[in-house]
Amino acid sequence: MSYEAQLDQAIGKLHEEGRYRTFIDIVRHKGQFPHATWRRPDGTEAPVTVWCGNDYLGMGQHPVVLNAMHEAIDDTGAGSGGTRNISGTTLYHKALEAELADLHGKEAALLFTSAYIANDATLSTLPKLFPGLIIYSDALNHASMIEGVRRNGGAKRIFRHNDVAHLRELLEADDPKAPKLIAFESVYSMDGDFGPIEEICDLADEFGALTYIDEVHAVGMYGPRGGGVTERDRLAHRIDIVNGTLAKAYGVMGGYIAATAKMCDAIRSYAPGFIFTTSLPPSVAAGAAASVKHLKSDQAIRDKHQEHARILKTRLKGMGLPLIDHGSHIVPVIVGNPVHTKMLSDMLLEDHGIYVQPINFPTVPRGTERLRFTPSPVHGPLEMEKLIRAMDALWSHCALNRQELAG
Fold first, then answer.
1. Separation in Å, CA 85 to CA 1, 167, 269
2. Most distant CA pair in the chain, distance
3. pLDDT per residue over 19-49, tens digit each?
4. Strand-by-strand arrangement of the 26-28 sheet
5. Neighbours of 177 (CB within 10 A)
6. What does the radius of gyration of the chain's CA atoms come to, in whole angstroms?
7. Quick check: is 248 catalytic?
């Protein structure tokens, strides 16, 4: 076998389908985000505005966060020095877990190096704790949830996206005595739609199932203290396990689950993804804790975030661009062709200094390729106007259809 030829074939297939992804090298500048510097492949540099970042609230540059990180690194040094079980648990990790437990109104929280690992490790471990567990998973759940469910070796059922009636059918068809868990999300990041949380909780009560919700694209941004959509809708008490991230609205890095003390204790004791992973650096834990604490009382930044998202969606709709709008902060503009999507992304970057990555299969279904904009409180009127003018011009230049998709 020619291993090189196989690699060429695999990569070549992505090029042929217009799905090959390239890294865009950018340098963020503290205090100037969303403005950054793009380092082109030829070594030259150009200013860009980032419109696809997950630092939704700009907390990655907030003085409260940076000061906490500086203090922690001055006190402790760089890394944690080990796994949580072997010298890698510090006061910073414990303080962050306490902030997160309080955020979600739970007894405890458990830190992971990312929300992906938190989902994968937790969902793949639960069948060890509850033999015979059946997991009911929304069809559009994140890849980390899919991987965790796939690897756990237990029974799984996939229900159609946000289809509570289909979920009921699946629950009714299984042994009523079998342990069950329903896994879903509060905000689905590609379309920006919300999960039917209350209806799913009602079914969980009826069928004796645990509830597991991914609030990754909601924590920090929804609810009076940033506890997510479950807090906003006063449903947090009905969720057994909450998964969240510290790398999006909180602007740092890491993931977590929040649940009962016994649940967190069991996961930390049985999940290989937790046991054998070096813990977050203390400085990262300190910055994340400062961010979580700050956002519990900064409603103004959440309001401004939602306002900017509404303005962008209104203006894009006004131009007739095919926008999906479910009322969240995520702004997907459908192009519908991977080659055209990449072309638009390249032209926005090279000709207009606007950085937005193309979203193609397998992240989204074929035929729904898109540009996914994430406006933030620090995207001001000038950045907004520049984006609108560029999209209007390029949409006409590429002769793309103008129509509004139903939200």
1. 44, 39, 10
2. 64
3. 888 899 999 999 999 999 999 999 999 999 9
4. 26-28, 35-39, 45-50, 354-355
5. 8
6. 22
7. yes
Q: Compute the half-sphere exposure of residue 284: CA atoms within 13 Å on the CB side of its CA.
A: 21
Residue listed under structure tokens 């503290």:
30
Element (H, E) at 150: helix 143-151
Which residue out of 156, 180, 248, 293 is catalytically annotated?
248
CB neighbours of residue 336 within 10 Å: 14
Strand ranges (E), 40-90: 45-50
Shortest CA distance to 233 belongs to which of 250, 215, 245, 258?
Answer: 215
Say what percent of the chain tops pLDDT 70. 99
On the 0-12 / 13-18 / 19+ scale of CB atoms within 10 A, 249 is buried
Q: How confident is the model at residue 407 (pLDDT cuts 50, 70, 90)?
A: very low
pLDDT in tens, 44-98: 999 999 999 999 999 999 999 999 999 999 999 999 999 999 999 999 999 999 9
State both tokens at 139. Answer: 């069809």
- pLDDT tens profile 187-221: 999 899 999 999 999 999 999 999 999 999 999 99
pLDDT at 405 over 50: no
Which amino acid, 262? K
* Tokens encoding 296: 């519990």
For 226, the 3-state DSSP assignment is: coil
Cα distances (Å, whole numbers) of residue 196 to 135, 165, 184, 202, 264:
17, 11, 9, 10, 25
Compute the average pLDDT of residues 330-339: 92
Beta strands 180-185; 134-138: pairing state: parallel
Query: What was the pLDDT predicted at 347?
Result: 96
Q: What is the DSSP string of 261-300?
A: HHHHHHHHHH-HHHHTSBPPPHHHHHHHHHHHHHHTT-HH
pLDDT band at 234 (very low <50, low <70, confident <90, very high): very high
Instruction: For strands 45-50 and 354-355, give the pairing.
Output: parallel
Give Cα 283 to chain centroid, integer Å. Answer: 22
Cβ density class 87-121: b for 16+ within 10 Å, e for less: ebbbebbebbbebbbbbbebebbbbbbbbbbbbbb
Residue with tokens 């994340």: 288
